[in-house]
């Protein structure tokens, strides 16, 4: 059995996890999958050599990529999740009782099945929610062809390597915009900006061409080392990003949420960017 796992995301820098137990390791139709136990982070999943999620800190990522657009929008009925096979994003979306339908498009059925078995605390039964429409398909193809429309689109993709590469193109973002109701919002994961600044710049260039209001917001997720993680934000409703704190607090309380990272003050403050990121995307910090 392996006793350490070294991530391969960057050529000149890496992080290493001790491995106390391996629950699963094999190659699916799309990618290599390993799920193992680490004494600090609990159960950990990596795809094609890149750490995707851990039991210990997944709540930060999932709460911020879900509640910021849903609370910011304020009247969400339909949500589309692209990716998210571990079920964490679905879990957080399901906590909003006002949402009537959640469509989740995941390319790799094996990720869903394995996470339900080996990472059950991520989804906590969300895959059994009757509001879920689970589609096993390519996310880029789905938004290019579907007739459905959504209030919020959450792109919970892997990094732009392998199956996730198509989910970082202007064509994909344009197709997503076509799938939004008027005034809807898309949010995207864009990696750790300090190490992956080109990823943020490419998304910024696309969003600049597509949306009346676009920006980034951030959160510090220990698993994704190297600084804050950047999330893209795009909408044609210029008011959504500027909701008063009192409005966000009222919506948060009305939703009956109990969160571990997200709160209305974090929501507002997360749009204040480190200057290196603001400079790179051509936006005020």
Helix and strand layout, with pairings?
Blueprint: E1 4-6, E2 16-18, E3 21-27, E4 32-38, E5 42-47, E6 50-54, H1 58-73, E7 78-83, H2 88-94, E8 101-106, H3 109-118, H4 120-123, E9 132-136, H5 139-145, E10 150-156, H6 170-178, E11 180-192, H7 197-210, E12 213-219, E13 229-235, H8 245-255, H9 264-269, H10 275-281
Parallel strand pairs: 7-8, 7-10, 8-9, 10-11
Antiparallel strand pairs: 1-2, 3-4, 4-5, 5-6, 11-13, 12-13
Helix pairs in contact: 1-2, 6-7
Instruction: Write down the overall geometry.
Output: globular
- Mean of residue pLDDT values: 95
Radius of gyration, taken over Cα atoms and rounded to an integer in Å: 18 Å
Helix/strand order: EEEEEEHEHEHHEHEHEHEEHHH
Structural class of the secondary structure composition? Answer: alpha/beta
The biggest sheet, with number of strands, parallel, antiparallel or mixed sense and barrel status, is: 7 strands, mixed
The portion of residues forming beta strands comes to: 25-35%
Total count of helical runs of at least 4 residues: 10
Q: For the largest beta sheet, what order do the strands appear in spatially?
A: 9-8-7-10-11-13-12
**Helical amount among residues, as a percent range?**
25-40%
Q: Termini separation (Å)? A: 47 Å
Unreliable residue stretches: none
Number of strands: 13
